[in-house]
Design goal:
Oligomer: heterodimer
CATH architecture of chain A: Orthogonal Bundle
Number of domains of chain A: 1
CATH topology of chain A: MetI-like fold
CATH class of the largest domain in chain B: Alpha Beta
Low-confidence stretches of chain B: none
Structural class of chain A: mainly alpha
Helix content of chain B: 10-25%
Distance between the termini of chain A: 25 Å
Largest sheet of chain A: 2 strands, antiparallel
Order of helices and strands of chain A: HEEHHHHHHHHHHHH
Structural class of chain B: alpha+beta
Radius of gyration of chain B: 25 Å
Radius of gyration of chain A: 24 Å
Mean pLDDT of chain A: 84
Helix content of chain A: over 70%
Shape of chain A: globular
Distance between the termini of chain B: 29 Å
Shape of chain B: elongated
Largest interface: A-B, 19 and 24 residues
Strand order of the largest sheet of chain B: 6-7-8-3-9-10
Largest sheet of chain B: 6 strands, mixed
Number of helices of chain B: 9
Number of strands of chain B: 20
CATH superfamily of the largest domain in chain B: P-loop containing nucleotide triphosphate hydrolases
Chain lengths: 294, 370
Amino acid sequence: MERRAYYKNGGLPWLLIAPQLILVLVFFYWPTTQALYWAFTLEQPWGGGNTWVGFANFLGIFRDGQYWAMVGRSAFYAIATTAISMVIALTLAAFVDRSLKGTKLFQSVFVWPYAIAAPAAGVAFRFIFSPDAGLVGAINQIWPGLWNPAINGAHALAMVIVCHAWLGIGYNFIFFLAALQMIPRSLSEAGAMDGARPFRRMMDLQLPLITPTVFFLIIMNLISSFTDSFGLIDVMTEGGPIGSTEVMVYNIYVDGFKGLDYSGAAAQSIVLMLLVIALTFVQFKWVEKRVHYN
Amino acid sequence: MAAITISGVKKRYKKNDVIHGVDVEIEAGEFVVILGPSGCGKSTLLRMIAGLEEISEGTIAIDGTVVNQLEPRERGCAMVFQNYALYPHMTVSQNIGYALKVAGMPKAEREAKVLKVAKSVSLEPYLDRKPGELSGGQRQRVAMARAMVREPKVFLFDEPFSNLDAKLRVAMRAEVRNLHRSLGVTSVFVTHDQTEAMTLADRLIVMNSGIVEQVGKPSEVYHNPASLFVADFIGSPSMNLVRGFFAEDGYFRHGQGGMLSLPGLAKAHLSREVSIGVRPELVRRVDAGHKGAIAAVVDYTEELGASRLIYARADGSPIIAVDDGNDALGTGMPIHFAVSESDIHVFDHTTGRRIDHAGAAVRATDSVSA
């Protein structure tokens, strides 16, 4: 039997959860309802009256070919970022888990990127990738014009993806390392006795046993790539050149605050929100149930 | 030729040594049990043979090849782990066949081989199950099948029965014994359970805090323990051990004025600080008037059914004896014992080694005959 504690005073429990409740209502539900309201109305940029327009805002963005191009770009951005970040983090975690020399040091070093604010990292990477002064730009002295994110859209997108992936490595690393260390050492040893080399053991034994973590991280990384890229893009490229690094979350900012199209931006945020909700739903319903051993 | 030659092997973790130099030869086809209390380094030694621990000093050779620098897969050993270490996401047949799959054996051949091995340990009804759906004994069998399927040169067992209940343990013991008889593969078995060790071993290696105390046949180790540790560790109830010295008058003096007439031994070990020992089953009960009888007082008794253990005290030294339990014995009752001089073991108290009757210390690897 489950034991529950009951409060005799009916007001006390509400008082106790009030701080959290107020935070959630003010900073989450209120803006969300506002966005919802705007998404179905035509909002005037200077305030004052608005008109109910139903789904017109949504139809407007869905009929726009450029919007779909941007959604595609966002998806590519999210998948590439997630893949790069997770593969590197898993590799590092696998090495640290094998307790090679210096493990203790690397255990903390690999986590550091997570503690760096996205815009700060953006500035650093802008310098690293700068075509005339940066580290990567040095190749321009050998092959002039080979690398220039300021005018080449693909270069710009790659630059932002690399930076975003780099920022996520620390977070992924912690989870991977924890998951790997949960696997009994004797399993790896049994694998070694069975003749499997470290890489084979990784693929056949460790990876299948940490699938719950892998799926969790895929979802978390995808969500983060869809929603957290604003600071990075704003600092590094401002969506350019010619919109080639404009992803959904950045486009909302551009349309809303630069273009003063509050209604269109609100409709786009609702679409993004639904996407994130869908991913979260997958995480809860599918991943937590399907990927399970024992 | 020896199947496994361990010479001067040491294990060092950072600063503290765990194994202080082990020299043992294991013959081909032999079943050797390494026995010792927890923390004595027996598992570490086994893992060094397997290649799961680095060898800090000395060499281990398998079939004449020094394997110090070889990876586990190149050593030709198969191991059964204490917690079985089965792959939880694979079925029983995948578990057994994994080594073959890694070795690149074609699927059909692999499956035939897995089936054959599974049959030999009666696992074929469970081939499609996951380890989580099996009982302890079945998991144990999967672990053994997984080791057998590779047809290794050496089987290594790391306390494989410690998670099983007493009845299953006896059954698995018989199974391992039969397996060894039919396959004839050199086996090294680590355990802290002396019954397991005595019943399985062709030869016993008794270890204590990183050194080998004695190597020998189980009966040899039991009847002629090479050191105080072995004398105390092997046997249940353990050997009666009394500290004292031999005086010129032919008596052994111990405890609070205790005197034992042992003229023969006194001559050989005159004035030496020793511990003498005698197995409880060799302590006879005698009448009070018996010549040289040891007068003792009963502390308590333990009824075992077929026999009875008598815990008594003679001149302040505890003494354990075994009898058939035909009479009533109560706490505080007087009782008399006798021991034959030839049943007594003598150990140097400072080194802990056995002293043979010529007065020389016995080494761990000597074959002792009293």
